[in-house]
Amino acid sequence: YWRDDLKTLKRFFRSIRLPNAGTMMFLIYLTGGLIPMLLVTSFLFHEMQNELISQVKQSEHEELNLILNEINECLTTIEMVSFNLFFDKDLEAISSSIYTNYQEIYEDYSNFTLFKDNMNTYRNEIAMISIYMNNPTIRENSYFHYANEDMMKHCEWYQNAKKANGKADWNYHYVDLYQSNFLCLNREIKKEDGSVVGILDISLNPDKLDANIKDRKWDTKILLNYKTIASNHGSYNEIDCNLNDILKDKTSTYISKVVYH
After folding, report:
1. Contact indicator for 135, 92 with CB cutoff of 8 Å
2. What is the mean pLDDT of residues 4-20?
3. What is the longest distance spanned by two Cα atoms in the chain?
């Protein structure tokens, strides 16, 4: 039987037909030239794409850092202004005085020019400075407001400032004078003996936020406590419920933040 198997094996090898010369040349070109060239081209395209993405990210990083530095500088200025209002004797006198006639109020208000002076000096950074006092005898104007019981119990930003206990506290809230929401520094001002003068309210000039991002082609938002306070697209004060998802998406979004105390 082994002779039959040998004949079968010979017939099998005779049945195998080798390709002609043209086909062989094509196979050599395909395996030795075209396929490697396509692989190299694909690799180079991928590397070039990664390099372009890296350059765009670096450019965005630098531009956002410039914006953040300018915002931080503005916040630091407002912080300094608020700190300088501690232990001001004229302000303390207005807070503790029991006024019985308009003339007394007028004289004390006229002698106190610190709010107006700071607003003139830092007009690019500050839109308004005012204070809320628990003194029902004062006459309200754009600078001085009476903090009534309802406000002390239900006003969120007022309560936040009280909890901060003299530290700067940033809130985004409605300002009656401008009938709009502003980013505001709120601070509890105290006397040397620890008694409360009032809650300071310094409104940031919104142009300092808007001007930095309005011309950016990419969607850019400035947020405070997960709320949009400035945006080059879309409405303000919207709740960004998907912020955690955005923060996780490192491939398509560049996130940066101001760390401020």
Report:
1. no
2. 55
3. 134
Q: How far apart are CA 202 and CA 208, in angstroms?
A: 14
Q: What is the pLDDT of residue 35?
A: 62
Q: For residue 259, count CB atoms less than 10 angstroms from its CB and return exposed for 0-12, middle for 13-18, buried for 19 or more.
A: exposed
Give yes or no for a contact between 170 and 156, defined as CB atoms under 8 angstroms apart: no
Q: Alpha-carbon distance 169 to 151, whole Å? A: 17
Q: Which two tokens stand for residue 145?
A: 């407001």
Q: How far is CA 91 from the centre of its chain?
A: 33
Cα 109 to its chain centre, rounded Å, is 37
Mean pLDDT of 91-116: 94
Q: What is the pLDDT of residues 183-232, one digit of tens each?
A: 999 999 999 898 999 999 999 999 888 888 888 877 788 888 878 888 88
Dihedral of CA 61/63/69/75: which sign? negative
Q: How far apart are CA 223 and CA 168, in angstroms?
A: 18
Residues found in the chain: 261
172, 206, 184: which is closest to 78 by C-alpha? 184
| Residue-level pLDDT at 106 | 92
Q: Which DSSP string corresponds to the chain? A: -HHHHHHHHHHHHHH-----HHHHHHHHHIIIIIHHHHHHHHHHHHHHHHHHHHHHHHHHHHHHHHHHHHHHHHHHHHHHHHHTTTT-HHHHHHHH----SHHHHHHHHHH--HHHHHHHHTTTTEEEEEEEES-TTSPP-SSEEE--HHHHHH-HHHHHHHHHTTS-EEEEEEETTTTEEEEEEEEEEE-TTS-EEEEEEEEEPTHHHHHHHTT-SS--EEEETTEEEEESSS-TT-B-TTHHHHHH-TTT---------
